[in-house]
């Protein structure tokens, strides 16, 4: 546990089993981290029920922002952007400096939309990415995107390589991280049309923090970490892979001692700290999402990554500014 | 072991570590199956070395077709279609009824091309699929495509659903198999553009063998088998997922007792029995690929699947006949 008070805005209504698992996860997180404060964003009766379960001495570690409606599970951007949803209110709380970071297990699309509208995107980032950290043999592997941006465009993959390298340097403390592009073989030319187009783009892409592009890697390498510290892919493939690794650990009787597939991911590319939990999160997943958000805030990860990227911007000649079809 | 003599044409030069691992795998396969005969396709000195390692009584179980060159690891179709490569010669041996099935750990693209040219495609199939069988909690899960056809087109996914349902019925003995489309959530509308287009196509697609479409499934479900017996995806995503599950089992200290991720897959959609092994196959992977080919031939899987599909053809109104961009 790193020291330092941190205040996390928690979306009480996000997730398949909300609010029950969110309440249980919040209680776990408070029990594990004495310097953690929570801003509970959701129906006041749910928040009051949580407060009632705390020891009196801990009750001043919890504040409540009453909001009635969860973000809808919908693909409609106008609905997603509703300012009165719990996740939008959680983002607003951070903008008002009433909290340091946002955690939600609700719709990823709604959380990304609320974060983009509330925090704004970093320069050059059109599509924020969700980055998941897998504990591999040789150290952590950052896999991105795992669901923020679903289509595989070369410029997006190149931008995500930059974001992932900066993330690995700042949050995993890696010097000269190895960056790979996920494909179906390691020889140049392996992959679908999107990967064949992205590989030469990544060869040319300047990377921050002394990172270097190692070329194509495979699904196996994401689990084991053998070839790369940062693995870049589209959010569709990354999400499928992450859940497949999770299923394999379930089949194998549990994850290795180094840890299993994460069920929380950090949003990269917006000017605020946001953690998205698996929609099917259990209470310990919510607690680990809150712990990740606290860790990122204590490391000052978002401003540190932003500074790393600003150092690169003079040399970067590729930005993720394609027009959406 | 099912009874019945079977003759497998083995590509001695296919695979990253060929011919050594192919020779070792062939020896293993011969030792495990007394009714197995092999036609070794490759350099005669390699084949002769293998024969010299056999007991004299077993030497008449092996024949040799001398071929000098492996198929090139290239994306150039003209090069892939070279008739004098080992994999093309193995296909030709089956066409001449000198063997019953082909096994190669060489370039998937070269094997698919050789099989399409030599055996021809089934009616309505433009893009053959590789199907891998994962041992899940509730029985085997057929995952396709795992590398035959890399782009996600709705008509291809619909045709592969038909092929996978017929394969599960014939080779896994499943009655009314459940067919799912791999995506990033189970609610309708989840996924990238290709999945959102394919889901309604699959709802309308008549399936053989009493199969029914259960909608969207996730990576987790492929490992555990919880939602579907047949999982349809594009060959890029399927290949990444399969190798990710394999990596997770390696990390977890080994696969579950029910078995790990397969390292051999059957080619579906051509009028012949073809098994493709992982390019990084070890000797036991090659042996299990030979065993799979023998099993498929003994089950008369290819003619049986073809008959199942012929029964459907009066009602099918979607065929995989899109034009390649």
UniProtKB/TrEMBL annotation, chains A, B:
Q: How does it assemble?
A: Homodimer. Probably interacts with PlsY.
EC id: 2.3.1.274
Q: Which reaction does it catalyse?
A: a fatty acyl-[ACP] + phosphate = an acyl phosphate + holo-[ACP]
**Membrane-crossing residue ranges in chain numbering:** none
**Which pathway is it part of?**
Lipid metabolism; phospholipid metabolism
Family of this protein: Belongs to the PlsX family.
What start and end residues bound the annotated signal peptide?
none
MF terms from GO for this chain are: acyltransferase activity
Q: What does this protein do?
A: Catalyzes the reversible formation of acyl-phosphate (acyl-PO(4)) from acyl-[acyl-carrier-protein] (acyl-ACP). This enzyme utilizes acyl-ACP as fatty acyl donor, but not acyl-CoA.
Database matches in PANTHER family: FATTY ACID/PHOSPHOLIPID SYNTHESIS PROTEIN PLSX, PHOSPHATE ACYLTRANSFERASE
Q: Does the keyword Nucleotide-binding apply?
A: no
For this UniProt record, give its keywords in alphabetical order, as a comma-separated list.
Acyltransferase, Cytoplasm, Lipid biosynthesis, Lipid metabolism, Phospholipid biosynthesis, Phospholipid metabolism, Transferase
This one is known as Phosphate acyltransferase
The cross-references to SUPFAM superfamilies, in alphabetical order and at most eight, read: Isocitrate/Isopropylmalate dehydrogenase-like
Organism of derivation: Plantactinospora sonchi
Q: Where in the cell is it found?
A: Cytoplasm
